[in-house]
Amino acid sequence: MDNTNEVKVNGILERKEYITHNLYHTKKSRILLSSLSLIMFGFLFSNAVSGDFFSVVFISLFIASFFSGALYLLTTVGIKIRSSREYKSDPIIQREITYHFTDDGINQYLGRSTTYLEWKEVLSIYEHKEMFQLYISKNKAIVLPKRYFQSSDEVNQFKHIIHQHAHTNKVYITEQ
After folding, report:
1. Residues with Cβ within 8 Å of residue 20, at least 6 apart in sequence
2. 3-state class of 32 per DSSP?
3. What does the pLDDT average to over 116-128?
4. CA-to-CA distance for 107 and 154, rounded, in angstroms?
């Protein structure tokens, strides 16, 4: 690859990667739900348990933590099941897709269809160990597994393009 500001990647998103994307996407909501349930269950059990203050607090928090943790696990399993079913039922997700990132924007090629996005249309960008997520709406993201990139130099070039052209303060990627 030369020194121009462009990166072209392609691949087929795997079911496991789609599930991982959805787990990242819902992580804050699942944590918030579990935290609120911890407080709620703690309050409920503190009224149901009798004894001295420290015993009541300890027992209530122990029981509430159990239920809150169980709720977190149940929602995580639910997200995995829902994501897996969604992936299986959507043939477009299972097709090869090509992305061409340049100074001007993002071209997405899927079969005979081409979509162009300007950098200003990207709302937020996240980097995780195994993928990048480029959100173009609150619930819609371009999911780029790092395996789509042919080398670490290509990943660094992609990060460079993002740092130069992303029009959002919500860029959460590691430095090059």
Report:
1. 128, 130, 131
2. helix
3. 96
4. 17
Q: Where are the alpha helices (DSSP H) in the chain?
A: 15-48, 53-89, 152-165
Residue-range domain boundaries for the chain: 6-13+94-172, 16-89
Amino acid letter at 171?
A: V
Q: Which two tokens stand for residue 157?
A: 């070039």
Task: Classify domain 6-13+94-172 by CATH number.
Answer: 2.30.29.30
Residues 75-115: pLDDT tens digits?
999 999 999 999 999 999 999 999 999 999 999 999 999 99
Neighbours of 106 (CB within 10 A): 20
Q: Could you give the CA distance from residue 138 to residue 77 in angstroms, rounded to a whole number?
A: 22
The two beta strands, 141-145 and 171-172, are unpaired
**Residue 139, SS3 per DSSP:** coil
User: What are the distances in angstroms from CA 81 to CA 20, 22, 93?
Assistant: 12, 11, 16
